[in-house]
Design brief:
Helix content is about 40%, strand content about 0%. It has helices spanning about 10-25, 35-40, 65-75. Helix 1 (about 10-25) crosses helix 2 and helix 1 (about 10-25) crosses helix 3.
């Protein structure tokens, strides 16, 4: 923990909401774990305080046959 300042967690539902937001609004296919940092910011778990923030969004390893199930779980 010497190099870690803080750590947060996000719910599965919030993670899936962000994943679909990125898909629908930004046209970026991203797997759930690749959207973790974006989820923390969009859900207000991590505060940006009007700062410019860069977020790395990664991974496109998504089974498209499961999209319907993932969307149902996200509440969408």
């Amino acid at each position: 923990m010497h190099y870690v300042h803080d750590m947060v967690s996000v719910s599965d539902e919030a993670l899936l909401r962000t994943m679909f937001f990125l898909w629908e609004r930004l046209k970026i296919v991203v797997e759930p774990t690749g959207a973790l940092a974006a989820t923390a910011l969009l859900e207000g778990i991590v505060k940006a305080n009007n700062s410019r923030v860069g977020v790395i969004v990664s991974g496109g390893n998504v089974d498209l046959q499961q999209v319907g199930e993932l969307q149902r779980r996200s509440g969408g």
